[in-house]
Amino acid sequence: MTTIDIPIFPLPTVLFPGGYLPLRIFERRYIDMVRECSAKASYFGVCLINKPENANQPASHMRVGTCAEICDFSTLDDGLLGITAQGRQPFVIQKTRMRDNGLLMAQVDILNLPDPFDVPEQYSVLSLIAARFMEQLGGNYPDYQPEKLQDANWVSFRLSELLPFENKEKQVLLQISDPVERLQLLLEVLPRFQDDSGQGNPSGP
Questions:
Q1: Please, are residues 20 and 10 in contact by the beta-carbon 8 Å criterion?
Q2: Looking at the predicted structure, is the pLDDT value of residue 201 above 50?
Q3: Three-class SS state of 178
Q4: Model confidence over 171-181: pLDDT tens digits?
Protein backbone atom coordinates (compact mmCIF):
# COMPACT_ATOMS: atom_id res chain seq x y z
CA MET A 1 0.00 0.00 0.00
CA THR A 2 1.32 3.43 -0.98
CA THR A 3 0.95 6.49 1.25
CA ILE A 4 1.06 9.97 -0.30
CA ASP A 5 0.20 13.58 0.61
CA ILE A 6 -2.41 15.22 -1.61
CA PRO A 7 -4.72 18.24 -1.46
CA ILE A 8 -8.37 17.38 -0.84
CA PHE A 9 -11.28 18.93 -2.74
CA PRO A 10 -14.50 18.15 -0.85
CA LEU A 11 -17.41 18.13 -3.32
CA PRO A 12 -21.13 17.20 -3.32
CA THR A 13 -20.37 14.33 -5.69
CA VAL A 14 -18.65 10.95 -5.79
CA LEU A 15 -15.83 10.46 -8.30
CA PHE A 16 -15.18 6.87 -9.41
CA PRO A 17 -11.97 5.48 -10.93
CA GLY A 18 -12.11 6.01 -14.69
CA GLY A 19 -14.78 8.69 -14.42
CA TYR A 20 -14.44 12.26 -15.69
CA LEU A 21 -15.30 15.31 -13.59
CA PRO A 22 -15.63 18.83 -15.06
CA LEU A 23 -15.09 21.60 -12.51
CA ARG A 24 -15.32 25.40 -12.40
CA ILE A 25 -12.52 26.73 -10.22
CA PHE A 26 -12.90 30.16 -8.63
CA GLU A 27 -11.59 30.02 -5.04
CA ARG A 28 -7.97 31.08 -4.71
CA ARG A 29 -7.02 27.98 -2.68
CA TYR A 30 -8.23 25.68 -5.47
CA ILE A 31 -6.67 27.80 -8.21
CA ASP A 32 -3.39 27.34 -6.31
CA MET A 33 -4.14 23.61 -6.05
CA VAL A 34 -4.66 23.30 -9.81
CA ARG A 35 -1.47 25.22 -10.53
CA GLU A 36 0.55 23.04 -8.17
CA CYS A 37 -0.92 19.75 -9.41
CA SER A 38 -0.31 20.77 -13.02
CA ALA A 39 3.28 21.80 -12.35
CA LYS A 40 4.08 18.57 -10.48
CA ALA A 41 1.84 16.23 -12.55
CA SER A 42 0.35 15.17 -9.23
CA TYR A 43 -3.12 14.24 -8.00
CA PHE A 44 -5.68 15.91 -5.82
CA GLY A 45 -8.33 13.99 -3.92
CA VAL A 46 -12.10 14.22 -4.34
CA CYS A 47 -14.18 13.35 -1.28
CA LEU A 48 -17.94 13.48 -0.83
CA ILE A 49 -19.06 16.28 1.50
CA ASN A 50 -20.93 15.22 4.63
CA LYS A 51 -21.69 18.71 5.88
CA PRO A 52 -21.07 21.94 3.93
CA GLU A 53 -18.52 24.48 5.04
CA ASN A 54 -19.79 27.38 7.14
CA ALA A 55 -18.32 30.38 8.93
CA ASN A 56 -17.48 28.36 12.02
CA GLN A 57 -16.08 25.12 10.63
CA PRO A 58 -14.69 23.57 7.43
CA ALA A 59 -16.69 21.10 5.37
CA SER A 60 -17.01 17.59 6.78
CA HIS A 61 -16.22 14.88 4.25
CA MET A 62 -15.91 11.12 3.83
CA ARG A 63 -12.57 9.42 4.53
CA VAL A 64 -12.67 7.32 1.35
CA GLY A 65 -12.31 9.24 -1.90
CA THR A 66 -10.70 9.03 -5.32
CA CYS A 67 -7.48 10.49 -6.69
CA ALA A 68 -8.13 12.92 -9.52
CA GLU A 69 -5.70 13.70 -12.34
CA ILE A 70 -6.16 16.91 -14.31
CA CYS A 71 -6.43 15.98 -17.98
CA ASP A 72 -7.70 19.25 -19.50
CA PHE A 73 -8.18 22.88 -18.57
CA SER A 74 -9.50 26.03 -20.24
CA THR A 75 -10.87 29.51 -19.60
CA LEU A 76 -14.66 29.36 -19.48
CA ASP A 77 -17.05 31.89 -21.01
CA ASP A 78 -17.54 33.51 -17.61
CA GLY A 79 -13.78 33.96 -17.24
CA LEU A 80 -13.37 31.24 -14.62
CA LEU A 81 -10.87 28.41 -14.83
CA GLY A 82 -12.40 25.18 -16.06
CA ILE A 83 -10.73 21.81 -15.62
CA THR A 84 -11.58 18.21 -16.37
CA ALA A 85 -10.19 15.61 -13.99
CA GLN A 86 -10.18 11.84 -14.37
CA GLY A 87 -10.61 9.49 -11.43
CA ARG A 88 -7.68 7.21 -10.67
CA GLN A 89 -7.17 5.02 -7.58
CA PRO A 90 -9.41 5.25 -4.52
CA PHE A 91 -7.82 6.17 -1.21
CA VAL A 92 -8.55 6.34 2.51
CA ILE A 93 -7.56 9.42 4.53
CA GLN A 94 -5.33 8.80 7.55
CA LYS A 95 -4.86 12.37 8.77
CA THR A 96 -5.40 15.92 7.54
CA ARG A 97 -3.96 19.38 8.04
CA MET A 98 -4.94 22.83 6.80
CA ARG A 99 -2.60 25.09 4.86
CA ASP A 100 -2.48 28.80 5.57
CA ASN A 101 -4.51 29.47 2.41
CA GLY A 102 -7.33 27.19 3.62
CA LEU A 103 -6.45 24.27 1.36
CA LEU A 104 -7.00 20.93 3.07
CA MET A 105 -4.09 18.52 2.79
CA ALA A 106 -4.25 14.83 3.67
CA GLN A 107 -2.01 11.85 4.16
CA VAL A 108 -3.80 9.06 2.30
CA ASP A 109 -3.31 5.36 1.71
CA ILE A 110 -3.82 4.46 -1.94
CA LEU A 111 -6.13 1.47 -2.40
CA ASN A 112 -4.98 -0.70 -5.29
CA LEU A 113 -7.61 -1.75 -7.81
CA PRO A 114 -7.90 -5.42 -8.80
CA ASP A 115 -6.39 -6.40 -12.14
CA PRO A 116 -8.89 -6.26 -15.01
CA PHE A 117 -10.96 -9.40 -15.52
CA ASP A 118 -14.01 -10.30 -17.58
CA VAL A 119 -17.52 -9.62 -16.33
CA PRO A 120 -18.89 -12.99 -15.11
CA GLU A 121 -21.68 -14.39 -17.28
CA GLN A 122 -24.37 -13.90 -14.62
CA TYR A 123 -23.77 -10.13 -14.77
CA SER A 124 -23.73 -9.80 -18.58
CA VAL A 125 -26.92 -7.70 -18.49
CA LEU A 126 -24.92 -5.03 -16.71
CA SER A 127 -22.46 -4.89 -19.61
CA LEU A 128 -25.41 -4.43 -21.96
CA ILE A 129 -26.73 -1.53 -19.90
CA ALA A 130 -23.26 0.04 -19.80
CA ALA A 131 -23.16 -0.27 -23.60
CA ARG A 132 -26.45 1.63 -23.85
CA PHE A 133 -25.04 4.38 -21.68
CA MET A 134 -21.98 4.62 -23.92
CA GLU A 135 -24.21 4.95 -27.01
CA GLN A 136 -25.59 8.12 -25.45
CA LEU A 137 -22.71 9.38 -23.33
CA GLY A 138 -19.58 7.88 -24.86
CA GLY A 139 -18.40 11.34 -25.83
CA ASN A 140 -17.96 12.10 -22.14
CA TYR A 141 -15.39 9.29 -21.90
CA PRO A 142 -12.52 10.11 -24.28
CA ASP A 143 -10.69 6.87 -23.49
CA TYR A 144 -13.72 4.63 -24.01
CA GLN A 145 -13.18 1.50 -26.11
CA PRO A 146 -15.82 -1.24 -26.60
CA GLU A 147 -13.57 -3.84 -24.96
CA LYS A 148 -14.03 -1.99 -21.65
CA LEU A 149 -17.55 -3.43 -21.57
CA GLN A 150 -15.96 -6.76 -20.64
CA ASP A 151 -13.94 -5.33 -17.73
CA ALA A 152 -15.69 -5.97 -14.40
CA ASN A 153 -13.96 -3.01 -12.74
CA TRP A 154 -14.90 -0.57 -15.48
CA VAL A 155 -18.51 -1.75 -15.89
CA SER A 156 -19.19 -1.69 -12.15
CA PHE A 157 -17.73 1.79 -11.74
CA ARG A 158 -19.56 3.24 -14.75
CA LEU A 159 -22.94 1.95 -13.64
CA SER A 160 -22.26 3.13 -10.12
CA GLU A 161 -21.77 6.69 -11.37
CA LEU A 162 -24.33 6.76 -14.20
CA LEU A 163 -27.36 5.13 -12.59
CA PRO A 164 -29.36 7.69 -10.58
CA PHE A 165 -28.22 6.68 -7.12
CA GLU A 166 -28.15 9.11 -4.23
CA ASN A 167 -24.66 10.22 -3.29
CA LYS A 168 -24.66 8.19 -0.07
CA GLU A 169 -25.39 5.06 -2.16
CA LYS A 170 -22.60 5.94 -4.59
CA GLN A 171 -20.24 6.30 -1.65
CA VAL A 172 -21.12 2.77 -0.51
CA LEU A 173 -20.41 1.46 -4.03
CA LEU A 174 -17.07 3.28 -4.13
CA GLN A 175 -16.02 1.74 -0.82
CA ILE A 176 -16.65 -1.82 -2.03
CA SER A 177 -13.25 -3.27 -2.92
CA ASP A 178 -14.45 -6.40 -4.78
CA PRO A 179 -15.81 -5.68 -8.29
CA VAL A 180 -17.99 -8.82 -8.21
CA GLU A 181 -19.58 -7.69 -4.96
CA ARG A 182 -20.23 -4.30 -6.59
CA LEU A 183 -21.75 -5.99 -9.65
CA GLN A 184 -23.97 -8.11 -7.42
CA LEU A 185 -25.29 -5.06 -5.59
CA LEU A 186 -25.92 -3.29 -8.90
CA LEU A 187 -27.83 -6.32 -10.18
CA GLU A 188 -29.96 -6.45 -7.05
CA VAL A 189 -31.00 -2.79 -7.25
CA LEU A 190 -31.46 -2.74 -11.03
CA PRO A 191 -35.27 -3.14 -10.84
CA ARG A 192 -35.42 0.35 -9.29
CA PHE A 193 -34.28 1.80 -12.60
CA GLN A 194 -36.37 -0.22 -15.05
CA ASP A 195 -39.14 1.33 -17.13
CA ASP A 196 -42.51 -0.21 -17.95
CA SER A 197 -41.05 -2.26 -20.80
CA GLY A 198 -38.77 -4.04 -18.34
CA GLN A 199 -35.64 -2.67 -20.00
CA GLY A 200 -33.00 -0.76 -18.11
CA ASN A 201 -33.45 2.98 -18.49
CA PRO A 202 -30.03 4.63 -18.73
CA SER A 203 -31.04 8.14 -17.77
CA GLY A 204 -27.97 9.79 -16.30
CA PRO A 205 -27.84 11.03 -12.71
A1: no
A2: no
A3: coil
A4: 999 999 999 99
**Shortest CA distance to 17 belongs to which of 118, 156, 189?**
156
Residue 159 has a CB neighbour count (10 Å cut-off) of 26
Closest CA to 182 of 171, 193, 191: 171
Triad 195, 167, 201: Cα angle to 5°: 15
Bridge partners (DSSP) listed for residue 87: 68
CA dist 22 and 117 (Å) reads 29
- Asked if 32 and 101 count as a contact pair (C-beta separation under 8 A), the reply is yes
pTM over cut 0.90: no
**Percentage of the chain surpassing pLDDT 90?**
81
Residues 119-143 have pLDDT tens digits of: 999 999 999 999 999 999 999 999 9
Predicted pLDDT at 200: 47
Give the total residue count for the chain: 205
Sign of CA dihedral 120, 126, 128, 131: negative
Neighbours of 138 (CB within 10 A): 13
Cα separation, 40 vs 20, in Å, equals 20
- Give one DSSP letter per residue of 57-79, joined into a string: SPPEE-SEEEEEEEEEEEE-TTS
**Per-residue pLDDT tens over the stretch 148-160:** 999 999 999 999 9
